[in-house]
Structures are given as C-alpha cells and as structure tokens.
Write a structure and sequence with these properties.
40 helices; 1272 residues; transferase; 42% helix; DNA-binding; EC 2.7.7.7; 4Fe-4S; globular; DNA Polymerase, Chain A, domain 1
Amino acid sequence: MVKDAGLACRFVISKRPEGAPVTERAVPLAIFQAEPSVKRHFLRRWLKSPGLQDLDIRSILDWDYYIERLSSAVQKIITIPAALQHVANPVPRVPHPDWLRKKLLEKTDVFKQRRISDMFSKASAKPRLTPDVVDVEDAAGPTGSRKRVRINSTNEQDDAGDSVLMEDRDGEDAEAAEAGSQDAIGATNKPPVVNALSRTPGPAASSAVTDLDKPWFEALGEPPRLRRDSSKGFADWLRFHKRKWRHQRAQQRACNAGGGASKRARTAGDSADSTAGESLSTTNILAPLPLQSVGIGASSGVGGMSAFIRRNQRALLDRPWEIVQLAGETGEPGLFRMWIVVDQELRCVKVQVPRIFYVNHLTAKTDCPADAEHQYRRVSRTLPRNRVAHHLYEYRMPESVYRKNQDSIRAQLMTNDVLGVFELSTSLWFRAVLRLGCLCVVDRDWARRLVASGRDTDTFPLDSLWLRSASQSPYLASSRGLKLSHFYHHTSGRLQIWAIFTPGNQPRCHVFIMAQSGGRLASDWPGLATGYAAEWRRREAAMREALGDQLIDGFMPPETFSFDVKSEQNIDGIVKAIDKCLSSNKTERRTPTIMTVDSSTPLSELTRRFHSLQDYPLVPVPPLHQLLFNSGHQPDSAEETYGLGLDWQRLGAARMIGHYLDSCVAYAKQLSVARYHQVPIGNLPINANESAILGIDVFLGRTLLKQNHLLWCSDSESPDLGGFESDDLRLDLDLTCEIEPFETVRPGFYPAYCAHIDVSSLAVCALLQCARIHEMEGGAQTYEILPVQGVEEMMSEAAGSSLSQYDETAACSTAFRTIRSLALAWIRDVTQHSHRCADNLLVHLQRWFRSPQSRFHDPALLRTLQRLMRKLQIHLLAELRTLGGGQVIRADFYNILLATGKQNPDDCLAYARHVCRTLCSKDAFQALDLQVSGVYSALLFLDAANFCGIRYEVTPEDEEDLEDEAEEAEDRRDRSASEIRPSQHPSLRHRRMECQWNLGEFLPISLQPAFDTVLTGLLLATETLLYEEGKTAGKGLEEALLTLLKGSLSHDLMAQVDAFRRRFKSAGGAASKLIAVPNPPGRRADADCANGGLEFAKSVCRVLSLADCLAEEADRVKAALLRLAGVGEFSSRGDWTNPCASLTLAEVACHRCDFVRNLDLCRDPLRRGRGAQGSWLCPRCDSPYERSMLELRLLNVAKLLAMNSSLQDLTCSKCNSVMDRSLAKLCPCAGKFRCTVNGPDMLVQLRTLLSVAEHFDLALLRTTANLLLSTL
C-alpha cells in the first residue's frame, strides 16, 4: 500500500511479465473493480500479454512471492527463534534459511575443528581468589564457615578435575547456599578461566575406570535424576557425573596412546550424554564440560591440541597414502597438489617433483658443481635403441630453476662433448605417477629427519615417497568416512544442463539449465523426484552388486533426492551459481567428499572455469557403456540429442538420473582398473581405450626403471632418443606399416562351400612366439645382439666395425623383451585369476604399438612386431595347406577365407572347426583365437571389395546343434548330395545372399542394376543347379553354366549395351542422370569414364572370366560387346583395369568395440555419405570411425610419400646397385641410374589422397595433397 497526501493506492504483485523486477509487476488493486473492457485493456498492457483471457485475480497473482513473504514472517517470528533455542522446526513447510542451516551444522558437527576462543576465556594477568565463587561440593552441603578450596586435577581425592580456585559462602541456610551456588556457577554463562595445564590422573582415578571399550552409559548405567528439593539428590547426581567425566578422560588418553577405546564407544557416549544431560542444560551447571566429550575442553589445554597435531602428523608419516588424485601444478613450477586418504581421512598435500635428465658425455667430467641445486652424478643406465653410453650423468634440479635457466642449460648441452640428452621430454606428471602409483609411503629416514627438525610441513619432495604395491595394502577398499558427490554436465543442441548431486542426511540435487539461444527456460521441472525414485528401485540390485559390501555404505546413491532447479540466461550466471553451490556444500557438509565428474569437458577446463572444484578431489567417470570392455553397446541416440524439443525435459531427466545412478557402478569399475594399473583413480582417462594405453605406458615405464633403462617417453609422436630422432629417417620411410598391409588373394569361382575364419590375437601371439618364429625360419634370434651404435659412430671407428650391426630389430631388443615379459604376466593373470583388466591390456596391446598417443610410441617397435606378424601369418598359412583339402582364397592378419571343397555346409563347418582346433593345439599358435564366423557357397571372388555368394551365418545355436547332432551328420555324409536339401541343414537357418561389387559404383546409374542382376542371376542359377537338380561341383555344373552363358545371359548383355548406346546417342552425348557416370572416391585418372557401355562390358566379362569353365566363352562375349560399343577386340581400350585405386590403412581400431581391421577408404562397402557427414562404419558395432584419427594417419602417409621422394636412392638400371659416388653419371657397369621411387605410382597415391579428401571434406589433407602435387 502506498500513501501520500491525497493518495491511497493498494497494489498486488502479479507473476507477469516473467523475469521482471517486483516493482514492475505491481498492479493496482482497483483495476479489478473496473469495467471488464477497461480491466482487460490495462491488464494486458501492464502484464505485457496481448492474448490474456483469464482476468481472475487468482490466476494473475504471483503466489510464490506471497508464499515467500509469508515464509519470511514465519521465520522471523517462529522458526528462527525456535532453532536458536535448539527446538526442532515447528513449521516444516518453511525451511530454515541457508545461513541458519550453516550455523546449526557448525554447532552440531562433531568433525569441526573448534577455535580455542570458543572454549576458553583470557585469564587476568594476576589471578586472585574470587570471594563470590564457591566450591561445587560445598554448594550441596550445609552452611559453614567461609573457606578457600583449591580443586587440583593432580590430587587423588579430587573428583572434579579442574584447576579452578573457588570459595564458599557462609551465613546462609542450605537452600540459599544451594541456590546461590547454582547462580554463581551457571547464571553468568561464561567460559571457565584456566590457570593450570597439568592433568595427570592419579592411580585411584585410573583404577576407577571400568571398561574403556564401552560407552559411559553401558559401563556406569543410567544417570540419577537431579532433584532440586534435596541436597542428597544433587550430591548423587554430581558424584555420578564425576565418574562419567573420569571415564571419558580415560577413553581420550587411551585413544591418544593408540590402544584405547574405540571411536564408536566415544561417539555413542557423546550422543547419550547429550540425551541424558538435558537436566544439566536446563540449570546450566558446569556448562563447558560437554566439550570434553570430543576430546577438547578446559582440561586439555595446549597439551591436548599439540597431541592432536602430533597424532595427525604421525599418521601422515607412518601410514600408507591412498592417492585419490594427483592434481595439476600449483602456481609454483613442479609443485603438484595431491589428494590422499590416510586413516580414512581425506587430506591435500603438495609434492615437489624435480626435473631429472641424463646427459651422455664423450669424456668424463672432472669439475664438481658449486651450486647444490645443479648436482649431477655418474650413473650406469641402458640407453634407448641400445646406444653406447660413454660417460652418462644424471642431472637433478628443481623445476623452477630449470625453467628460469632453460636457455642457458640448453646452450651448455649443445657442445661437442655431449652425445645425447635423454628424458628431457618426460613430463613431471608422468614421472610422479611412475614413482608414486596409487599407494605410497613416506621414507623412514626422511620422516625421522623431519621429526628431529621439529617442523611441520604439507610439502613433500618426490624422493621422500615410495610406491607400495596394492597387494601389500588395500587401495580405497572401504568407504567409511567418505562420501561420493557427482558433477554432471551435458550439452545437447542448444541446451546445456549442469547438476550437482550431494548425498547425505538430506540428499539434494541442484540443477542448472541454460539455452544457448539466450532465452530463459522455465525453472519448474516436474517429476524429477518421482522419476529418480523409480529408476533407483529398478537399478538397486545392480548397484549393490557392483559396489560390494565395503563400498555400499558410503557410495550407494540414496533412495530419494530433493531437486532444486534454476534457469540462467548466460554462462556467467551458471558459473556463479555453481561456485556458490559448491562452496556452500563444502561448508555445510563436513564429511570428506570425492567428486565424480561426468562431462565431455576436460578436468583442466572445468577447474579453470569453476574454481570451487579445486576444493574437491575429482574422479572422472565415463558413461557406463564405455566401460563395458569389447562391447558394441551404444546409448540411445534420442537421449543424446534431445535438444530443445517438446520432450526435452523427460529425455534430459532420464539421461541425468541414469548417468548419476551409473556413476557409482562406473566408480567401482574404475577403482578396479586403478588398483591393477596402480594409477590414482582421479588420473585415469575417461576413455577406456586411453586408460588401457596409459596402463601399458605405466607398466612399461616402471619395468624399465627397475631394469636401469632410460625412458624414451614423449608427449609428441616421435620418441625421445636423446636428440637423434631425425638422424636416420630410413626407419620411418616404410609405407608397409601404413598403406601396404599383408594380404594374399586368389580370385576365382568356388561353387563348393568355403569357410570364413576370424583371426584374433595375432599380434600377441607373434610377440610371445618371437623366438620360435626365428627357429622355424632356421635362424637365430636376431634381436639378441649387443648394443649398437649410430652410423656416424661406426664410420668413425677403426676397421672391423661392421655396418650390419645397424639393425632396428637389434636396436629395440631390450624394450621388446620387456614388453614380451609384461604380456606374459598379463596372460598369466588372465588364465590364473581371470583378471578382466589384464585381458583389456592384451586387447589394446596392438593399438598401443601403433597409437601416437602412447608415450612410448616407437616406429621401430611397430615395424619389428609387424615383421613377426607377417612371418607368423606365413607359417600359419603353410600349416593350413599341410592339413590337406583346403585352399586359401584370401588371407590377412584378421581374416582367412578357406575353400574346403565340401558339398554341404555342415561338413564345411565341421572341417573348418577341426582345422582351427588343430592349428591352435600347436605350440606356435596356442595364443591365437580362430573362430569360424560364416560359410559361403557359390562364391564368385575377385577381391575383398568385389565378390558375391550365399552366406550362412554361424551362431552359437549352430555350434550346439552341430555338437548334439554329430551322429546325424555322419549319416548324412553317406547319402548322396541330391538327397540333401538346403532346408535340412541346421546352419541354413541364417542364410542370405551377400553381394559387394565396388566395380558397380563406377558404372552409369542406368547400368548399375543390370550389373547386379546379371551376377545375381548367375549366383542363383548355380545354387539351383547344385541343390535342386543335384549337380555337383564338377563337369556337370560347368556344362550347365556354359550353356546358360551362351544362351540367355549373353543375349541380355547384348541388349543392355545396345540400349545404353542408343540412349547415349539420343542424348547427343550430353550428360544426363541416366547416363552420367558417378565420381566415387579413388577413381583412377586413366579410367575411361566417357563410354559407360564399354566399362559395363569390360567389368561384366572380367567377373565372368573368374570361372575357369566360362573364361573362353566370356572372351567371345567380350569381343561381341566391344564391337557393339565401337571398340576393336585388340584395342588397348578394351583391356580391363580396376577403375578404383586402393588406399588401405592398416590396423584401424574401432574406438567403441576395439575391433581391428584393415580399412580400404576407397573400396570399403561400409562407406556412408560424403562431405563432412561422410564416414566409415565398424562392421561389428556399426559405429563410425573417428574422422580426425583417420585424417591424421592420411597426413602421415602424405608425409612419408614426400620423404620417400626426397631421400630416395639412385640405382643402376642394369645391376640394380645403389650409387655410392656423388655426381657420377654412369654406373661402373656402364648402366644408367634411375630413381628408386616410381614417379607414376607416387602420383597415383597422391591423387588418391586428394580424391578421398575432396569426397569426405578433409580440409587439411586436401591442402597437403594439392601442395605435394604442385611440386611434382
């Protein structure tokens, strides 16, 4: 209401316009009494709602505003005074404000460190006797003469235990003395004044304690009631509480000594004390004494506080540290924050990591460093690539000193005496992880020196900490004393959602939403609490099973949550709101909390944006489906891309709640990975593949350090070889590792049944059987060679030094043996303990060899492994041929297509499985995993991208049927093939036709269906002849197919070519949709694209000629088609060449299911789309490969092509010897020199790269390819 001279106006607050200040939403009350037209006009104008129809005041009022005003009044009058008087909230619908809740938590929190000023008051300089203070014992007795009494805790007969001077009163009766004593002691409500610090219990006091393991109410019984009308009742009450206080002191002393009462007993006694002592609080007698229940009171003084600090320092030095997270550097270089758990307490300490590097000097150093910070010492280590260590010195200095003098240090290391500088690229974080692991202890000698110095510290040098194995001490095995909060962030389209889940006594979730378009979303989000409860009940069993008994108490999500939803318009508002929420949670929640993070944003970016996150140890947890090793599970796409659609609230809530409930399970799985890898759980990558690569790096790094081997780890793609990374580029010019993988192909027509065998773990098998592979070749194990030297070193030495020593296999022999020993250990863990993490490391081992993300990535190791894989594959195919009856159609590192010659699929399946079992039983192939994945019949095979056949899928049900019907299969073999129908075979239940013809993509659109129809018709005709007419794969089948080709099939081909020729002439040569030739990636520049009919004729005849029985007739049909197309039979235009070039990347791994295969970017049948939306799909899980990863590998191919062209040798055209004399025109044999690299082949490869870049819109690759083509 507003009043002024001649003015009295009453207002109401409306809820519109939304988001406007209260003053702008004030509406005069008189408008509701006006005429309807006037009321409608002004209300629409004031409320800024032109379409307003409901003019009822109840629908216009801002009820939330009035409820808030009423709640404020209730708080001021009722709830706040009640809370200050320790009364429960009498109006539960009106919650306490945040400041009051914080204050109440501070008062009732037993874990809070209290200030000393809250327990004591400052004593006067000259303490003197106070005549108004009486003895507590005398206050209960009769009146007597005034006397002075000193209550001393050291006296055996004293029961009060306080060193406070008191004196009684005389001249009063008993009742007056009792009342006066109570007023004198309690009415002032002031803390006691401490004049003595001694608190040594006497023998009587020690003997009076009954049982320290029990709380006082169990050891002493129920306390007597305090009766004001009787002095005897007060004396009994006081005598009981003296015994109780003595019992609590003894418990505290025993706890300080390390062998006393348990914390549970003291806590139970404290809670009972607060309950049973209500009468004590009402009269305010000896008010400071309850502080003794937490071990800090008037009696403990400085000694108690110092003992508490000494206990914490002693636990920090004696107990093992369970490292939760090794966070980033602080403001000081080399100083890392580390969150640890010691005795179930979460702490934050700092670790100083020095800069360590090694210098290989040609001559020994004789001078001694004057500065202690630049100390060095001579060491004996094995250098990377087995280089010779002449005089190796280890330099150690603080990181701040190194960064300050970095330029001068590098200048000193560039002298002629320095042969190499090693481990300069090793990051400090990785060195700390290798040193500490997930469990560490403080060095005893360093701890003794620290205790002797009498100083406290929270900064520890890295050398003072030692790794402890997880088998010696459990790592985060219990959740006692810890809580698990969750930070959630997700972006979907224009919508961003943040959520902070805080469990506890009052579980609460703060949700923040923001639309990137700038509009404000409604803050109401109905159904969150009920949806959460329903989802929790559905997942309860799975969560309990994943957490186990030890983690379920602290980390199990609560059954109910209260949700607080807020909407912001910009990111600044979100940041302020989240920082405020995190700060308040840390202030109110005294329990140590670990924050799990579910966000695609890196932790470094999150902590930079939200500063309050630095107050928590952060554990990134990925979505649960990413932790399911080797699974192709994918989340629902609707949940990932709900955006701002009409159903965004339901989908967003389902994803948010589901991810939070999955976070505890993901935490448990990450904890098992951290224990096996011995890496802090907060430092594990969110991606399971990256986590496995980090685990292999950590295992290899620690093993190399134990073997006194220097590390070559680096954050870049090149290994740290002491400065010799680019001295010998020959090792990096092998294109077989990238685009020329091993493959054996035998084109042809196979009417009998063929088996498709999947090969797994070939890399692990080659790594383990490297010695046996060399034995099978008849040679020695070549990588057991002495340390080798560089080219310049060997050339500068005297005669007798052989250049044959320079072998990259021998160069990495030590590292290769170390990796082999690790693989053997992981296999032992898998076979003996069924450890899933070890199996995951073996699965990712081949990816680790190739991945540039690996810190120990070395191209020499990769090439050594691939050579062993090639040799092992060749031996595998040789063993396969020795088994008899089989013919290898196609083979690479991951697939084998075997022609068995069997006449029914059951016999083919049984034979293929027998072959797999026989091969795996041999010693050289025991680590291989061979599985039959399919059976083909009537297979017409040109290459991996061009074939067709009838495929029978092999499923687990088929395997069981085959085992159960073994006897029936024997009976079927005795019958003739004509009696067997396809429907009688169990394996034919999963039968389909599979046709993949990359050739058809380069034909005109109008001829592509005809191409598929001709080949499909030939396939179906073959199947009909085999099964319905009883033909066998022999002369009868060949004659039938030859008759088919001479008859209807040749006439159809003639008709198709003639129709296309007439259509092309009628169009006048102009391109149209029907006769236009598409331009897929990889089209060769020499392909004849103008005459589509000619390409159709050549392609069809080339496929028909795959069958030996049809080759001669196919040539006759081809001659007729060429004449019809206007091309001579012997013209060069009639020769068939594959119109599509091949660009195969070796060993491409899927980031979801870890399936590895060779990917042909131009011919792959799972190629989808074009432009920025184009992708290649994984055949196992249908997930698209990462375009950025493929583009980086293609850029590496372009770099290798350029380096091959620049660094190629000149060879003689006659004797093929390499030119060894500069500027020589002719070879000594009079032959001319020629380039090693074939120019036309390199031009084809660069044009293929450019074609792929343009088709899939790879901008960086397109720029690089154009630049290289311009230089040719």
